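Hypothesis: this fold can be encoded by more than one sequence.
Test: take the structure tokens below, design a sequence, compare later.
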């Protein structure tokens, strides 16, 4: 059997293998992008039910406050949000409660900053 080496055949084989590897990598990246696009809600816009909610972070902070044994009776403080910043408004009876508000809010996933400048201690 007489086999002749043809450089064009080798080049064709390298091209086919390279194309298959590139195609496979593109398919894997596409699959990841499709998977990630279903979870693309920003954490500060994720509501109590895990779906999009423009006030999602404020609602999750408010829920955490009502579930806290120390703060469960506090009803004179309101929660607002500006992106991932939580803003408290209203009145509270003492500094200990105010400090607890800040601690509970900071422990909610997605909170980057807590503003208490609009809370008055009475």
């Amino acid at each position: 059997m007489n086999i002749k080496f043809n450089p064009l055949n080798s080049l064709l084989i390298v091209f086919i293998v390279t194309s298959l590897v590139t195609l496979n990598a593109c398919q894997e990246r596409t699959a990841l992008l499709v998977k990630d696009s279903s979870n693309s809600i920003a954490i500060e816009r994720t509501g109590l039910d895990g779906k999009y909610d423009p006030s999602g972070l404020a609602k999750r902070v408010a829920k955490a406050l009502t579930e806290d044994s120390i703060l469960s009776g506090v009803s004179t403080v309101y929660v607002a949000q500006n992106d991932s910043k939580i803003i408290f408004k209203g009145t509270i009876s003492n500094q200990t409660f105010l400090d607890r508000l800040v601690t509970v809010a900071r422990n909610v996933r997605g909170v980057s900053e807590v503003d208490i400048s609009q809370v008055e201690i009475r």
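The beta strands are 77-82, 85-92, 113-121. The domain at 43-121 is CATH 3.30.1340.30 (Histidine-containing Protein; Chain: A;).
Hypothesis status: open.
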